[in-house]
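Continuing the series of single-chain predictions for the mutant panel. This is the parent chain; the variants come on the following pages.
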Amino acid sequence: MLSNIGFPGLILILVLALILFGPKKLPEIGRAFGDTLREFKKSTRGLTSDVMEELEEDIKKKTAK
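Parent structure:
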């Protein structure tokens, strides 16, 4: 869905955001969005590693039998 936006659409979204929030608020919003995205990636990595550890334990148990 987002891959169909293109460059002109992206510029339009940025201009609208600048008009709606103003030049002072826009960096704060960007920073908050970046922090949220970073935390989401961190949580996803943690969840993936937990699942992989459980799979490895199950494989070890099955091969030990």
